[in-house]
Every structure is written in structure tokens, then in C-alpha cells.
Amino acid sequence: xxxxxxxxxxxxxxxxxxxxxxxxxxxxxxxxxxxxxxxxxxxxxxxxxxxxxxxxxxxxxxxxxxxxxxxxxxxxxxxxxxxxxxxxxxxxxxxxxxxxxxxxxxxxxxxxxxxxxxxxxxxxxxxxxxxxxxxxxxxxxxxxxxxxxxxxxxxxxxxxxxxxxxxxxxxxxxxxxxxxxxxxxxxxxxxxxxxxxxxxxxxxxxxxxxxxxxxxxxxxxxxxxxxxxxxxxxxxxxxxxxxxxxxxxxxxxxxxxxxxxxxxxxxxxxxxxxxxxxxxxxxxxxxxxxxxxxxxxxxxxxxxxxxxxxxxxxxxxxxxxxxxxxxxxxxxxxxxxxxxxxxxxxxxxxxxxxxxxxxxxxxxxxxxxxxxxxxxxxxxxxxxxxxxxxxxxxxxxxxxxxxxxxxxxxxxxxxxxxxxxxxxxxxxxxxxxxxxxxxxxxxxxxxxxxxxxxxxxxxxxxxxxxxxxxxxxxxxxxxxxxxxxxxxxxxxxxxxxxxxxxxxxxxxxxxxxxxxxxxxxxxxxxxxxxxxxxxxxxxxxxxxxxxxxxxxxxxxxxxxxxxxxxxxxxxxxxxxxxxxxxxxxxxxxxxxxxxxxxxxxxxxxxxxxxxxxxxxxxxxxxxxxxxxxxxxxxxxxxxxxxxxxxxxxxx
Length: 651
What we know:
Blueprint: E1 73-77, E2 83-87, E3 91-95, E4 104-108, E5 113-117, E6 132-137, E7 148-152, E8 161-165, E9 171-174, E10 215-216, E11 230-234, E12 243-247, E13 255-259, E14 275-280, E15 288-292, E16 301-305, E17 311-315, E18 327-328, E19 352-356, E20 365-369, E21 375-378, E22 393-394, E23 418-421, E24 431-436, E25 452-457, E26 495-496, E27 501-502, E28 517-524, E29 534-544, E30 546-560, H1 572-575, E31 576-586, E32 594-601, E33 622-635, E34 641-650
Antiparallel strand pairs: 1-2, 3-4, 4-5, 5-6, 7-8, 8-9, 9-10, 11-12, 12-13, 13-14, 15-16, 16-17, 17-18, 19-20, 20-21, 21-22, 23-28, 24-25, 25-34, 26-27, 28-33, 29-32, 29-34, 30-31, 30-33
């Protein structure tokens, strides 16, 4: 199955045109109901961007739902001790992952997706085409964003495990259940999201915890002590047991910590009893260490990346002894005369590092993951005792999907704009959204619209890594009134700014946490809805492998009887009231176009005054009404296909 005909036309929330309030009561209250306004963007499921460079999610925006510019900013302490947003890089590692003797590249991007670029070249001329997606997703919660990746052969058989540091400072280990030539890193069994074992950490609404076997404790009681940790695994004290090094993300007082293995490689144990400060950041933060014999003296040294894009060198002075601190060299590494990656190409700030002899000349090279999502290499043009590096060069690949099978979306809705989601944040691997014309996709024939909205899956490019599709959670499209009940629940925000309540925003209906659902939402403007009025909803739909589909209208009413009274809990019920009415129905989806027609009429039962807006039309009071349209369907992972067209909502 190919998607050569698809052209990516996106519906980012901020891109929809803001039109004047609807004047005619018969006009369509849905804006852009035929999806004719859209913006193109790239599809990165192949691991290659539109310019042909190896890339993952760039983390280039601060919106939380936008592939592939999906926000991976994290809250971190910056200069001066202030908390601010910090852009995380794609994390990169290099190893032979399929046993063919060639070095491959593995990454985890800012959104939490893992990719492997298998080397199809030679030992001296590496070649990377496109990525294979790993069926593993840990990024459904904020503390698992900005993951730092390390590959570690604990069994010393060529089979690489994943060791990951997350935002809260947890170290996660995903064991390779395959082998040295057929890697398999399974989704942790305990839950679809990988949460925390730490007793003081926030809990998921499902109450699921990470299994003990998936966590590497760094203290005897399992408590967390630093954040944004970047792990490296190496037998630092040469006792035959792999030790854990972690770079810290804290401000000013950060360091590279050494935790010596107190047990064995098969059952490593790390606690504060064998914790050493190996190297200090000297005011630098977001430290990412890698171990390498930098000067050819036979002893391990450290290269450490930081938030400003520097790669600093910390040299050992012979065999390491307990309590010995490595000293930072005066100048960071120069890459073809460029001292700091952070002042180089646009988007390069925090970096991740790997070292490997990528071109087979006997010298280690430096591979860098950037916040712009790209992967670069600086080849070593020096000697074993005096390394010297050329400029960083972004690695090229083959853009299979090109610009055409994806659209950007966001979860920051504004009134009169679509919010569209196909589980990107929930790990819906290979899922895409786009708009297509009849010329681009002949299967949409039978509708008169210029283009229609399409949800589907790219075919897997995997040849070595298996199981590219996952279904991370069961889907229950039945929405209850509780999920919309204000305040303090997901749903409308009921406050009016003039009286302590805000009537200007609404969050919309519940987004859910399932991976393989398609959700289409739009907030309907204030001033166009009235209780006791029949509203007709219609839209066209077709598809295949759709398990269940539901349309929901959530109507909200707000009334402030006396705007002069201050907003206090004491007078909230008497003076300020709000109520929601939720109506939901299923609809069929088949291989041919079907027009869904439903009539909705909302009245409020708890607060009858909301049903009489004319009574509160004076200057001293205020009554407003709002609605959220929610169309959602659950698709079979890897197979589901859904088209939606011509959405109309009229009185």
C-alpha cells in the first residue's frame, strides 16, 4: 500500500481563519467544515525530514499536540535560578544492533518515539536510508519527555538493553528480549505509559506503576534526587561490573555522578553508598556524558555536552581511585573551528552525544543529537593521541513519505477552530492525518467537496524490528456528564473575568488517553446558541476497520445574576451558576459515504434560569452559552481508515 498521492495539508488550530460572528441563524455554525483551509507539513515516520536529513520530532514549538513540531519543551531551572522552558534534543546512540558488523544509529526523539537507522553501507562508508520504528512508547506523560538514551550490553553478548533517564530523574531499563541480530525492546508490561515507582512521584489516573524490574534504583529506598538525568554505562573502576554514570540537568550545582555497581551485571545495584562525584559542571547544566579514551593513554575519559551546545573534555590521570575528580579542560571541542554547537545551526541548543568509529578509520567520531531533531557527525581527522574534529555534518537519508501524509494539530483550542488528534501523544505509531482531494485519493469519489479529512496509517518500513503497531489502551467512547462537569473537571471553564469567573475559554470535551482513536473537535462561539432550539448536525463519513464511532455535543450555560457582586464560594450557588448538558450518539462507518444526521436540543434541568436568556439580557447580569462538538472513532492499529467531510451544525 502506497501513499504517493497524498499531499499533507494541515489544520493547525491557529491556522483556521477567524470569521465574523454568524449573523444568519440558518448559517453553518461550524467553521471550515469542509477542511479547505490547511497548511502542509512533513511526515517523520520514516525518520527523514523534508530536506532529506535523518530526523525525529524537533520539539520546535510549545504546543503539546503538533506532529511533527510536537512540543518537547520542559520546565527547567535556568540562569539566575528562574524556571523557564528548555528545548530538549533528540537523543542518539550508536552500536551494531543487527549483528552484521556495521554500526547502526538509534534515537529517541522529543516526543518519545524510538527509531533505528540500520547501516546499509560499509564499515568505511556508512549509509543510512530511513528508520525502523521501535514499538515502544514511554512519552505519554510529562515526566517521560526529554528522554536520554544509552545502550548497554549487560549480558556481554552483543544484545543491547536500553537505559533511559527521564525528566524526574528516574533511570529506566528496557531489556532486549530479542538478541544481537534481532533486537526487541518490548513495551513494559505494567502499563502502557511507564510511570514512576517513587512513592512521592505523581500517579497516573489509572493508578498504574512501573514494574520494579523496569527501574534501576539509584538510592537504597528508591527516592529520586535529581532531574533530567542522562545515563552512561561503563565499567569505570575496572572490576568487571558495569557502573552507571549520570549527567545532571540541574542548574549551577550540577555534576556527572558515578554510581558503582555493588552487585553484578545481571542484577546491577546502585545506591548512595557507592556514589561518587566524578566531574563537576562548573555552572553548566543539562550535562550529557559519554565515555571514551580521548587521548589514547588507555584510560577512560569523559566528553560532556551541555545546554549551550559545548562538548567539554574531562581527562583521567591514570587509573581511577575512589574520590578522584576529573578536571575539565580549558576549552571545549572545536568542530571545524566552531567552538559551540549552540551558536551554530538554527535550533541547536541542548545536545546529546555518542562516540563511535563511524567511518572505520580507527579513530572515534562524535555523533550529536540536536534539538532541531537532526543527527550530525563530526569526523575525527586527528590522531589517537591528539584528536581533531571536522565540522558537524547533518546525516542524510531517503525521505520515503515526503511532504504529504501528515498534518499539524494542537491542544490549545480557540473558539471556531478545529482541534484534531490521532493519538500522536499517546503512541499511535505510524498514524497520520491529512486532507486529500479526489485527484490525490480517488477513493473519496462520491462527495462534492474539494477535499476531505483523512485518518490512516502509513505502512511499516520495518524489516528487522517487528510489531510496528501497538494498541496501548482500550477505548471507551461513551462520554459521561461527569467528564464535562464544571468546575474542577475536564470541560468548560466557567469563570467570568469581570466577576472572578472566566467565560472566555473552554477546554472542550475529554480528549481521552487511548492511542488509536481519531478525535475531531470544535468549540462553538458564544452568542450563537440558545436553549430550547433544535440544532441539526450533519456530516459525511466513510472508512474501514473502524471499531466504534461516536458524536457528542456538550452544551454549557453560564449565568451571573448580579455582576456587581464579588465572586466568593459563599455566593457561588446563589449568584453564579453553570450547568452542562451532554448528548452522545453512535454512528455507523462503512465502505461507502454515509451522511450522519442528528438533531440536538438542549435544556438545563438543575438551573432552570439558564433556559430563559432574555430574562438576563440586562446590563447588570450575564448569561452565555457554548458548545463543543466532538466526533471520535477508534481505528484498528495499522489498518484503520477514516474519512470525514462537510460538517454542518445549523439551527
